[in-house]
Design brief:
Blueprint lengths: L8 H8 L3 E2 L4 E2 L6 E7 L3 E8 L7 H14 L4 E8 L16 E8 L7 H14 L4 E5 L7 H5 L6 E2 L6 E2 L1 E3 L2 E4 L15 H13 L6 E7 L6 H9 L4 E6 L3 H16 L4 E6 L4 E2 L6 E2 L6 H8 L4 E4 L4 H8 L4 H4 L4 H24 L1
Parallel strand pairs: 4-5, 6-12, 6-13, 7-11, 7-12, 13-14, 14-17
Antiparallel strand pairs: 1-2, 3-4, 8-9, 10-11, 15-16
Amino acid sequence: MTQAQLIDLEKATQALSTVDDPDLKKDLISLNMARNIEILPNNKVKFNLVLTTPACPLKNKIEEDCRQALYKSGASEVEIITTAEVRGFKGFSGKQPIDGIKNIIAISSGKGGVGKSTVTVNLACAFKALGAKVGILDADITGPNIPLMLGIKEQPTISEDGKKMLPNQAYGLKAISMGMLVKDDEPVVWRGPMLHSAINQFLREVDWGDLDYLFVDLPPGTGDAQLTISQAVPIAGAIIVSTPQDVALLDSKKGLMMFTQMKVTVLGLIENMSYFIAPDTGKHYDIFGNGGAKKVAESLGFDCLGQIPLQINVREGGDYGRPIVAIEPEAEISRIFIEMSKNIATKLSIQAASQN
């Protein structure tokens, strides 16, 4: 082999500097995504590829681009160790982040009954399935559903120093909810200031540890909880859940505009119960209308993140504490959630990179 064909550290680094992250539009060296480059015997190159999210949908493309660039520069073999470091949302001045939590995602809906909590739980499970560290904060203080949907019946415990609550865990997710602190049939009849205080306690007085993503399941509407969370912490993005039904879409528009007024990035709208396919005949039914949420999102300049069909096993999963994405990850509806999670993670990565 001639000297010109040999690869060295400088050539390997230069080769990797020609590979861009397709979403971030910058090269891997500038982004510090290609690390610990080594030249081993027989012209083998080994390095660490550090993605900005474990949910990166372009992982395979980036790896292949790296291999081709290194082969062209003289490498005979390439070993890539791929990991991920989620970048955090810095937010705006005046909003104190929570130590250890990189991205807070608000899940909201204009009205009740659209499956917002079901979407929250399954999205969280999808992020977890892709390798992220995930938590759920149930901010619906008076109507908490997260414990039921995750099958959590225990009360949270207290840290050894007695200063913080420890979130319960299920399916690899950390979770906290008022439903874990009161009996199932005990109503929480509180005024706005008490709701504000409870949400802040769940944010600041729970030992969340290190999380890549904290999903906040908000109550329906545009009330105290939405205002509290928007003012208390830097929210990386908000997602609105709606059915295609006109009455739900009318309220969803208000939710979209509320977050915009609060200067919270709207990641997009999810259309839940989008359609129903009869399991016995395969016939397609538009029970709540057809594509309304997608049309509303696009008309207002937002993305429709996905359309989720109405399925019995999703409802059963919520009722019995067995989220479909965690229990049946290969199911078609689970794949819809996983694809949505990749899209959302990409949006958050681009946003975080733009702050640097």
